[in-house]
Amino acid sequence: MWGSNLGPLARDERSSGYLLRDVPAAYRGLIDRLVGEGFSAVIGDEDTNAFGNQVVLLVHDNIRVRLVRDRGQWFLEIDAALTDEWFSPVIWMALLDKELPDARRPSAEKEASFVVRRWPDFDVLATPCAVEKLRAWQERRAAQLGALEREQSSDAT
Q1: Which residues, listed in sequence order, are joined to residue 65 by a DSSP beta bridge?
Q2: SS3 letters for the chain?
Q3: Model confidence at 137, in pLDDT bands (50, 70, 90)?
Q4: How far is Cα 101 from Cα 122, in angstroms, rounded to an integer?
C-alpha cells in the first residue's frame, strides 16, 4: 500500500531528529507526542525522483495519522477508520465543532494541537454515519475555498 520505501521510524544521530527534511517544528512535536501516547510510527524514505516527497504514518489501534511532504510542503491528514479515506484536520474540526473554520489553512501549530487534544475522538467517530459527515464537510470546505478563490479573482480584476 505505501510502497517499499517505508521502514521503522529512524533517527538521524547527527541532528537528533527524525530523518525528515524541512518538517515544521509543530509536526515534529506531534510525532514525538503521539509516539509518547503509544502510536507506532513508520517513516518513508525521501523520494528524490518525486520532488522529495515523503510520508510518515502514525498508528494507534484504528487511528491513523499521516504527514505527507508533497513538492516541499507538509500536510497532515487523519484516516476515517472504516475507509481508506484521509481528511485534513480542518474537516475533523468541522465534524467535531459542527462548523467550518475560516477559509485560510490552519497553521501547523493549530493542526498539531488539535490532533494532540482530540485524537481519542477519532476512534469513537469510526462509524459509517461519521464518515458520511466527514465527506459532507469536505464538500462544504471545497465550496468555501472555491468561493474564496472567486472573490480573490474578482478583487484582482
Answers
A1: 58, 78
A2: CCCCCEEECCEECCCCEECCCCCCHHHHHHHHHHHHCCCEEEEECCECCCCCEEEEEEEECCEEEEEEEECCEEEEEEEECCCCEEECHHHHHHHHHCCCCCCCCCCHHHHHHHHHHHHHHHHHCCCHHHHHHHHHHHHHHHHHHHHHHHHHHHHHC
A3: very high
A4: 18
In tens, the pLDDT along 33-57 reads: 999 999 999 887 666 555 568 889 9
Q: Give the whole-angstrom CA distance, residue 121 versus residue 95.
A: 11
Distance CA 77, CA 84 (A): 12
Are 9 and 42 spatial neighbours (Cβ–Cβ below 8 Å)? Answer: yes
Q: Residue 107 corresponds to which cell in the numbers above?
A: 497553521
Q: What is the pTM of this model?
A: 0.79
Alpha-carbon span 82 to 85, nearest angstrom? 8
CB of 105 within 8 A of CB of 90? yes
CA angle at residue 74 from 50 to 119, to 5 degrees?
A: 130
User: By the 8 A CB rule, do 38 and 60 touch?
Assistant: yes
| Cell numbers placing 3 | 510502497
Residues in Cβ contact with 20 at an 8 Å cutoff, skipping those fewer than 6 apart: 28, 43, 54, 56, 69
